[in-house]
Design a protein that fits this description.
It contains one helix and four strands, in the order ββββα. A hairpin with a 2-residue loop joins strand 2 and strand 3.
Length: about 60
């Protein structure tokens, strides 16, 4: 098993993203996509952010 730590930061945008990595083992290969329960991850900046309770922002 491989473990990766991913840190995403932005200073200017509201970004959505997924992780895609190529893998190979024992003669097989493919592309693995990592999402946030089927949706892209979201990273936003603090600039001009409007605070709100988590239940209203989702």
């Amino acid at each position: 098993m491989e473990v990766f730590t991913v840190t995403a930061r932005t200073s200017e945008c509201d970004c959505t993203w997924v992780i895609e990595f190529d893998w190979s083992t024992e003669g097989r290969s493919g592309v693995q996509t990592v999402t946030n329960n089927g949706q892209p991850f979201r990273t936003t900046s603090k600039a001009d952010a409007v605070p709100c309770p988590l239940s209203r922002c989702l």
